Amino acid sequence: MSVPVLEMKQISKSFYGTQVLKNVSLTLGRGEIHCLVGENGAGKSTLMNILFGMPVITNTGGYEGTVLINGESVAFDSPRAAIEAGIGMVHQEFMLLPGFSVTENVKLNRELTRPNPFSMIFGKKLETLNRRQMAKDTRSALDRLGMTIDEWVPVAGLPVGYLQFVEIAREIDKENLQLLVLDEPTAVLTESEAEQFLGVIQRLAQSGISILFITHRLDEVMAVADRITILKDGELVSSGPKEDFTITQIAELMVGRRIDTEARKKRTTRPKDEEVVLEVRDLRVNMPGEALRGIDLDVFRGEILGIGGLAGHGKVGLANGIMGLYPSQGKVLYEGQEVPLNDTQAVLKLGLAFVSEDRRGVGLVLEDTIANNIVLTSMQSQDKFLKPGLLKLKDEKRIINHALESIDKFDIRCTGPEQIVRRLSGGNQQKVCLARAFTQEPKLLFVSEPTRGIDVGAKSRVLELIVELNEMGVTVVFTSSELAELRSIADRIAIIYEGRLAGILPPDAPDVQYGLLMAGKSLEEVGSR
Amino acid sequence: MKERLVAIYHGFGLPRLIIAGFLLLLLIIAAGTELSVPGLLSDALVRIGQNGIYVLAMVPSIQAGVGLNFGLPVGVICGIVGVLVAMEFTLLGFKGFLVAILLAVPLAIGAGYLYSLLINRVAGQEMMVGTYVGFSVVAGMCIFWLMAPFKNPALIWPVGGQGLRVTLTLADTFAGVLNNFLAFEIFGLKVPTGLLLFYGLIAFIVWLFFRTKAGVAMEVVGRNPRFAAASGLSLNKYRTLGIIMSTVLAAIGYTVYAQSFGFVQLYNGPLMTAFPAVAGVLIGGASTREAKVRHAILGVVLFQTLLTVAMPVTNQLIEGNISEIARVVVSNGMILYALTRATGGEQA
User: A362 in contact with B at a CB cutoff of 8 Å?
Assistant: First the structure.
């Protein structure tokens, strides 16, 4: 067997003491399509960043293990070095200049030039562009992709699907390209575009270019992959030729059994009746990157409803849309009463509260004290903590007393209620957010990503607090990227896929069902397996 | 004890300590020359009261997240119109002063509202836009002063019967009504009691406002607009309120300034009013994102005292008139310093 194009051996990497990759190895032969699958945070991007010598790796102490290209050990210290070695990458976000034509984008920074009198005097930078040759090269790259668009069309007006192809054209136009990394390229494509796209990458592979393909769509994996590698929590779970796997197996391996039963045991009461407290009908939320495209959902009184799904599929759009932070349309009924959309003040007055996934951006006033952060929303939306009288002066004494109580109840580690919130750790900041929501005495609470970026100890405390609030009679809609977390405290878990509800599962449903729902299978298909 | 000193030092801030030290040094030097120290301090007290409300006008705009109100002349013009109308009808003493304020405030509310419509459309560049709004309004009003239907011969050009003069005196109407109210003298130090009391009253009202529900809301909007939106607050409502308050304070500030100064300067007179006020609040420890009433008070005391004391003292020490240059360098240098550090606050 010939020397593999790429070999990554025993790669380990930690960020500030957190291990994100553990002894991951990967081999890629010439002309092979290798699919890399795993949940968000499984370590896929880190692995690619290492391959590309991204500054984020070198600046955080490098990595352990070796990378071999064509059998030679390399250690790229910059993306430029990786590009020179023949590695191309197509990013999830388009890196194209909208005002430039297709040709100009393809040839950006690699323009073909001819000398002219000025350049002879002032140097190479002033050489004339050889536009004809540039267009010719671009044409041939586009032809290889089966694209019929004109090479001088400006990129700005092209449909999203085409942009992806222009990016690939740019990469294959590089003569020494031998390895192409595609990071979730089909996420933004329509079904027919994606199909065309898969055809193109198969053709590329046949022409001898090796492809490393990152995707969440398991159908695509089965359609094109030669080999499959599955990562979970920074570890390689399984790797082998496609024939060794079925979709079901991949889904199961991706999600893995990590259920944390500890928090679960603490719940003593269960929701008794099945009374619908919140009815969501055809809700569309225009939240950039997390759009909801029409969702129907019922929330029962007293339950903890988990909302899961992969990043970018719209799970955090639900709470943000109902709370009026992003433009939304549709119908939401709370206790039979219509909830005015896009009017945060009115929603707060109905008794709904929200702990945002963007703790530092939306959840807190970082420069303000703990005490103020806890009472601000209640003061403004419910006129609490104000002295009687026309002036509506704030009642400093009650604010401080309430803050002291909250600090005690929520176990906020701080020097006192006057401490500036910015100085607190992430976990304690999150507790302040929960205290603020609790101060509103809500009947329905939305909590989004409450454990993101906080340490393990604070994590379990935050989850406990959510359960405690629930036991006091608050209905909780709990959104999280961590399935294990959802399964540990939620009564039901709704999975969102591409802005729609993929299905609702009980927390003890088998891993494979979760994996399939997250990969875009419907509940009927899941059930039939 | 030591910890408390450190805490006081941190609350006060190094720049203010340096300025205060420099002031003390100037006063010691002044004592060694033929200058009268009580005289200098009397002047300083007048200038503090005269400019104090302008500096206070910066507080609502900064707290609402609009930044420093470089469009201060918008309010100042309203104040001028109020004063001119009072003069047109030769209203004397307190009556003139009060009528001027009562006319100026509604005008300033209207002008501030219009100004806020513009400012709310240029979020992120309020200070730049405000500067040019100030300049444009002053220039535009030059035409108004020429055309305005004032008839009192004391106000208009003697020849032609139309158009207001460049400088008008208030000596015959209400110059010094506040300054002389309950004024007394102690060890050669003249205290303009009425002026300082009025300033104190306005400062108290602003301070009180920021302890009300609306004041807290304005502060939240300024500190974190996204949090404010998530708490159901309307950003533009509180930004508008902040700008209107700032404009109204500028208008009141002008009437107080005019009665103390004794003259009304039209045409390009109000062009630069925003700059000493901006410098004042920044010297007091405010930043472009955070300003408290105490910053405004401390700032106006330090800045105006420095100007009144530094000018005659440097004139004594150095040949030629360098004081005006020093004033420009200090005030603009201070603005530059503070703008480069947007966070500032207590550490500035």
Answer: yes
Q: At what angle do helices B72-88 and B93-119 cross, to 10 degrees?
A: 150
Per-residue 3-state assignment (H helix, E strand, C coil) for B58-109: HHHHHHCCCCCCCCHHHHHHHHHHHHHHHHHCCCCHHHHHHHHHHHHHHHHH
CA–CA dist A10, A25 (Å, integer): 5
Give the separation between CA A147 and CA A162, rounded to whole angstroms: 9
**Domain-embedded: residue B4:** no
Beta-bridged to residue A331, according to DSSP, are A281
Domain encompassing residue B164: 38-270
User: Taking CB atoms and an 8 Å limit, are B233 and A380 in contact across chains?
Assistant: yes
SS (H, E, C) A220-274: HHHHHCCEEEEEECCEEEEEEEHHHCCHHHHHHHHHCCCCCHHHHHHCCCCCCCC
Phi then psi for residue A116, to 5 deg, are -140, 175
Q: Chain B within 8 Å of A394 (Cβ-Cβ)?
A: yes
Instruction: Confirm whether B53 is domain-assigned.
Output: yes
Listed in order, the ranges of chain A carrying CATH 3.40.50.300 are 1-86+177-256, 274-528
Query: Any idea which architecture A274-528 has in CATH?
Result: 3-Layer(aba) Sandwich (3.40)
Residue B162 forms contact with A (CB below 8 Å): no
Q: A376–B230: do the CB atoms touch at under 8 Å?
A: no
DSSP label of B319: S
Gap between the Cα atoms of A242 and A222, Å rounded = 7
Q: Strands B189-191, A128-129: parallel, antiparallel or unpaired by DSSP?
A: unpaired
How far apart, in Å, are the Cα atoms of A23 and each of A13, A43, A65, A75?
A: 9, 12, 8, 17
Give contacts of A362 with chain B, Cβ < 8 Å. 226-227, 229-230
> Do B77 and B138 meet the contact criterion of CB atoms below 8 Å apart?
yes
The fourth-level CATH superfamily of domain A1-86+177-256 is P-loop containing nucleotide triphosphate hydrolases (3.40.50.300)
Could you list the pLDDT tens digit for every one of the 529 residues in chain A?
578 888 888 888 887 767 788 888 888 888 899 998 887 667 888 888 888 888 888 777 788 888 888 888 888 888 888 888 888 888 767 788 888 888 888 888 788 888 888 888 887 778 888 888 888 888 888 888 877 888 888 888 777 778 888 888 888 888 888 889 988 777 767 777 788 888 888 888 888 889 998 887 788 888 888 999 988 878 888 888 888 888 888 888 877 655 444 445 455 555 556 788 999 999 999 988 888 999 999 999 889 999 998 878 888 999 999 999 999 999 999 988 899 988 999 999 998 999 998 888 899 999 899 999 999 999 998 888 998 888 889 999 999 999 999 999 888 888 889 888 988 888 889 999 999 999 999 999 999 998 887 776 778 888 888 998 888 889 999 999 888 888 888 989 999 988 899 889 888 888 888 888 888 877 777 664 4
Contact flag B224-A383 (C-beta cutoff 8 Å): no
Strands, sheet with A500-505, edge to edge from the N-terminal-most edge strand: A352-355, A444-448, A475-479, A304-308, A492-497, A500-505
Q: Which residues pair with A154 in a beta bridge?
A: A101
Is B204 inside a domain boundary?
yes
Structural domain count, chain B: 1
Whether A391 and chain B come into contact, CB under 8 Å, resolves to yes
Who contacts B319 (Cβ-Cβ below 8 Å, separation ≥6)?
none
Nearest to B172 by CA among B99, B80, B81, B264: B264
* A223 touches A30 (CB < 8 A): no
Check A366 against B224: CB less than 8 A apart: yes
**How far is it, in rounded angstroms, from Cα B64 to Cα B331?**
24
